[in-house]
Amino acid sequence: MKFFDALGAFGENIALIDRLGQHVTYRQLAADAGRFADAVGGGSRRLVLIMCANNVESLAGYLGTLRSGNTALLLAADTDRAFLDNLIELYRPDYIWSGAASGRKTAFVYGDYGLQSLSVERKVAINRNLALLLSTSGSTGSPKMVRLTGMNLEANAASIAEYLGLGESDRPITCLPMHYSFGLSVINSHLKIGATLILTNDAIVTRPFWDCFKTHRATSFSGVPYTYEMLRRLKFFDMALPDLRTMTQAGGKLAPKYVLEFAEFARRQGVDFYVMYGQTEATARMSYLPVEDNVSKCDSIGVAIPGGELYLVDGFGRPINHPGVDGELVYRGSNVMMGYAESEKDLARDDELDGVLHTGDIARFDEDRYFYITGRMKRFVKIYGNRVNLDEIEQYLKAQGFDCVCGGADDLLVVAFTETGRGEKIKNAVLTRYGFHHSVVRVAEVDEIPKNSSGKIQYDRLLEEVLA
Fold first, then answer.
1. CATH number of the domain bearing residue 355
2. Measured between alpha carbons, how far is 277 from 300 in angstroms, rounded to an integer?
3. Which domain holds residue 287?
4. In this structure, are strands 339-341 and 327-332 parallel, antiparallel, or unpaired?
5. How far apart are the C-alpha atoms of 159 and 191, rounded to whole Å?
6. N or C: which end of the chain has fewer CB within 10 A?
7. Is the pLDDT score of 8 beyond 60?
């Protein structure tokens, strides 16, 4: 039985503590999700667009959609209106579950949320295995979605619970948004074993977050590289957090020197610190670095999660069997997506990957078969844990009339241009369109864009010149 169908088995265990300090038991959560499921209805699959925050309403809608055998599409509650309208036109959801629903077509109300029926006539039948759609690109606003099954969610939740050794006494606090695959994996894996979720939308840099952490005696938190960089500035190492037992990091590569710093701190405090690697395309997690090796192998993504397999292939698709040789990282497991979707018609498609995901990352492994990411095959970076397509941003800026190219690294977007005096306009265009913090966007005027003899832009050289 999948975790979202088995909530009631944990009875009077506290499933979550919300922003108002309200305690909700598993029995109550199962009943609330059941009422939502009844409102959405069964039979032919329906698509429910959920405008997510870290609150009980979003959680009940998500679980209720899964329990009813329908398909959920998760977005941030504050999603840009123009993008939201475009997504609705492309995917034609049957319902929207949000805090802004109103009118005669509101089919169900729970807390501050309402279920709004859009009364669409679906052009294609949604695949019976499709349970969840998650965005591939975080804050860039691409309509491309990952298609996940209920089995994907169950398999990844069970695997994470196993390698982290989760139990009913765990009390994770939500540092990450629910619509983000990493944040959702924290929720799923703890619901799987009957733990207590502490729900908050407060940022980790604020006092209310830490007040909530201490008041409700949180035992774990999860973060992307930016989270851990902020913790260092907050003098986290001097905080008194006697209930803290586990810290996890994913969503991009944390600098090895910081991994080492947090690993050594964790050992002194008797806390488990896990570095993990994953992609939305694999539901969330594909590898983890065992605690006992987080100092000696602080630059590694570790080993495959339970039930999964990591291996490398060369440019011809042949397996690489020797340590220290670079190749594309491939993952095999039951948490691998069905494939992508870009519009309603794709919701009918069957599984196209058969459990095998070519990650697009270049990696090598050592003598102990621990893996190390050494580069990317495609032009993606991660900004605050969200995957960002550099080509997509570059094309957008060119469409706005800017002659420029984009490069970058994790938590840094670099835009180079040759037209004098256009830097401020370019930066404002990026900030307005994508919502990045100004500190991660750097614009640079250059004499010329470096290209090789065949006319291809030399992005690595450009980045070196700009950052020199």
1. 3.40.50.12780
2. 10
3. 3-374
4. unpaired
5. 13
6. C
7. yes
User: CA angle, 131 as apex, 125 and 137 as ends, to 5°?
Assistant: 105
Q: Are 277 and 286 in contact (CB under 8 A)?
A: yes
pLDDT at site 139: 45
The residue with tokens 């990045």 is 436
Contact 94, 46 (CB under 8 A): yes
pTM summary value: 0.86
Position 454 scores a pLDDT of 45
pLDDT above 60 (res 138): no
Mean pLDDT score of the chain: 92
Q: Is there a single domain that holds both residue 251 and residue 321?
A: yes
Domain end residue (candidates: 338, 353, 374)? 374
Instruction: Give the other-Cβ count within 10 Å of 202's Cβ.
Output: 18
Domain match, 334 and 427 both: no
Closest by CA to 407, choosing from 363, 446, 453, is 446
Question: Which amino acid appears at position 407 of this protein?
Answer: G
Q: What is the pLDDT of residue 359?
A: 94
Say how many domains are in the chain.
2
Alpha-carbon distance of 146 to 127, in angstroms, equals 14
